Amino acid sequence: MIMDGRNADSGKMDEIALLERRAGLLNRRSFLAGSAMGLGALTLGGCAISDGMSLAEAEKVYGPVPEEKFPIPAVDVTKVDPKYFRKTVRYETKEAPGTIIVDPGNYYVYRIEEDGAATRYGANVGRDGFRWNGDAYVGRKSEWATWTPPKEMIKRQPEAAKYARGMPGGLDNPLGARTLHLYQNGVYTLYTIYASSDPESIGSGVTSGCVGLLSQDMIHLYNRTPVKTKVVVLPA
């Protein structure tokens, strides 16, 4: 998850497939990451305490965001299973309010709230062989970041060479509108929680270990997440 054009971490990232829908650009549905980790994690669960969104409500929540540097279009909510719409749920945990918990087995991300509640977001997660679990924290936050393909990717996919000095932020950038960079012990893990504009990816294992939320959900989470926030990634 490279944020600067000459970031030294770029060589460690996994390959992103070419964007399926935009010729010459890189696919958000096959996001990249670093090596797997084997740390322990909590086993937690959530049950609903509020009714789910209707389609009409979802169209408002996931509507266009024109005030952004790169205006974000509305999500086609008909391409998202309604169970992945943003929702307030009951969630029993010993983690402090504000903690982010990723549940890759169920394709959810939770932000712990007060009084045993959590905000739940639908997510895409790592595909088989690329999932990891453990504790981390948000070491950096980025808006409309630059993405740089690693040298290994350029060697395999020469068409990516045009981004060797960095792909500027924008709607076609795989990092999307917002990115939370995950760290452990002061070291960037190369894993992120990022903004996806691909509604069909939500509820799927399509990345190389990173976690994607719909752009509107990611902005909602990003605005409520300071640097140093604890992140717990559960076993799949």
UniProtKB/TrEMBL annotation:
Q: Which UniProt keywords apply?
A: Cell shape, Cell wall biogenesis/degradation, Glycosyltransferase, Hydrolase, Peptidoglycan synthesis, Transferase
Cellular component terms (Gene Ontology): extracellular region
What is the top-level taxon of the source organism? Answer: Bacteria
Q: Which pathway does the database say it acts in?
A: Cell wall biogenesis; peptidoglycan biosynthesis
**Is Hydrolase there in the keyword field?**
yes
- Residues of the L,D-TPase catalytic domain: 98-234
Give the Pfam families listed for this entry. Answer: YkuD
Q: Which GO terms describe its molecular function?
A: glycosyltransferase activity; peptidoglycan L,D-transpeptidase activity
Q: Name one GO biological process term.
A: regulation of cell shape
Cited PANTHER family: L,D-TRANSPEPTIDASE, L,D-TRANSPEPTIDASE ERFK_SRFK-RELATED
Spell out the family assignment given in the record's similarity comment.
Belongs to the YkuD family.
Q: What is this protein called?
A: L,D-transpeptidase family protein
